[in-house]
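Page 42, continued from yesterday. The earlier attempt failed because a stray header line got pasted into the input along with the sequence. Redoing it now with the clean sequence only.
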Amino acid sequence: LGRVLPGSGFGPDPDRLENWRWQMRVLAATVGGHEVVSRVEARGHPGYLTTAHMLGEAGLAIAAAPPAGGCLTPAAALGTASAPRFERAGLSFSV
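This time it went through. Structure tokens are written below.
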């Protein structure tokens, strides 16, 4: 793979990663006909920086949580108590 893939340290300059702001809005409808709108807003490049922040913070939150047992969904594993952790990393979620 070393012949085809870029070497370690290859990628955008750090200032190009941090000077991003983005948001994503998700619209959904319930079976009862109600609409739900959720929004994610973040600082940082969505592919390089923000994804790494989300995965890192989620892993730290799960590692620090008491064992709940079984296979959990991300919402059940992280819960709303981890929202401040994501906000410190530059991400905010709203419904």
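Notes: Strands lie at 21-29, 35-43, 91-94.
Reminder to self: strip header lines before submitting.
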